[in-house]
Amino acid sequence: MRWMMLDILGRQLVSPWGRQFRRCFPTTEDTVKHPTRAALAIAALIGLCGAAVQPAANTADAHLAAAKAAAGFDFTGTLARICIAPQTAPGRDVAPAPAPPRETWFTEPAKVFDNLYFVGTKVHSAWALTGSEGIILIDTLYEYASDEAIVGGLRKLGLDPAAVKYLLISHGHGDHVGGAKLIQDRFKPRLVMGAPDWESIERSVNQYPNGKPRRDIVAADGQKITLGDISVTLIATPGHTPGTFSMLFDVKDNGAPLTVAYNGGTAFNFVNDVPHFDTYIASQRKMAEAASRANATVLMTNHSEFDNAVTRIKLMAARKPGEPHPYTIGREAVARYFKVTEECAQVARLKLL
After folding, report:
1. Which of 16, 104, 226, 345 could form a disulfide with 231 if both were Cys (CB 3.0 to 4.6 A apart)?
2. Which domain holds residue 135?
3. DSSP 218
């Protein structure tokens, strides 16, 4: 009888998409035991569910609605940055701005998973993946923050910066490659980056007044960077920059393995024309498919506004035994993230036509 109530309500509320109801609101033991609570939840979610199952018209408004539905309350930062107030051009080849006050960017490093550590800032993220033979470091922040946040952060966490054997750069913008020369010079890791972004750095006249990182390994699509018992798979996702790479890798939460989808580039600070957006959209779809195949349930990026890194790390302090990890959002939510980026790019693309 209780299920009949839910089933009838579901068909009425989402008609003519009643067949999709259970996809948006699957039956659980809790919904059967508490039909009133379930009905209220259905009513609250119905706008989101209906938008998700309707075929979107190919208009900017339709794609914006689809992006909002995919974002929900999980990815509001991403939605705001690339749908509501997107950047519309690449940055200029100018010298870095003076370092901002420390209190605006500094945050404490943190152990996030058994073998993954945050050594970033309030705005930009850098990650240390630890294994049996050393550390794979992902991204290096702006130059001004890299010494204290990365080198100092690793030491605060009881890790040796000299154990960094690979340095993976998601893309060649200063907020992620700025500290690469410092890490490369001091600790001699192998440095991996996409060919177009190596070339962009080498062409730059003004962005690296203290010197550029030395060209080392050119990343390849599908390449695996392996160090002992840890491995990172590189996925070419050009768009944000021509040489952007996203990543897949495994972490452990109290010994349980989880797969991370790491998005290498998000904002639209590239030449805003239809071909560039077509490239970006194809890359977001490609990464979504790769994350799905890998059963990724964790989404990470190199900006805290996109994956709420700083907030999630603070939530870890309140986590009780048996509770889900704040970063474990599930396959469906990981897929929705890439739906947000794709749909927002569709909005911008259509506005150019």
Report:
1. 226
2. 102-351
3. E
User: Are residues 175 and 323 located together in one domain of the fold?
Assistant: yes
Residue in the block written with tokens 């690339």:
82
Burial of 339 (0-12, 13-18, 19+ CB in 10 A): buried
Residue 250 and residue 110 share a domain: yes
Regarding whether 2 and 150 lie in a shared domain, the answer is no
Residue 118 belongs to domain with CATH number: 3.60.15.10
Domain assignment present for 138: yes
DSSP string for residues in 68-97: HHHHTTT-HHHHIIIIIS---SPPPS-PPP
What is the chain's pLDDT, residue by residue, as a tens digit (353 residues)? 433 433 433 433 333 333 343 444 444 444 434 444 443 343 334 344 444 444 458 999 999 999 999 999 999 999 999 999 998 999 999 999 999 999 999 999 999 999 999 999 999 999 999 999 999 999 999 999 999 999 999 999 999 999 999 999 999 999 999 999 999 999 999 999 999 999 999 999 999 999 999 999 999 999 999 999 999 999 999 999 999 999 999 999 999 999 999 999 999 999 999 999 999 999 999 999 999 999 999 999 999 999 999 999 999 999 999 999 999 999 999 999 999 999 999 999 999 99
Each residue of 141-156: b (16+ CB within 10 Å) or e?
A: bbbbbbbbbbbbbbee
In a domain, 207, yes or no: yes
pTM of the model: 0.84
Q: In whole angstroms, give the CA distance from residue 168 to residue 301.
A: 13
* Residue 328 DSSP one-character state: B
Split into its structural domains, the chain has a count of 2
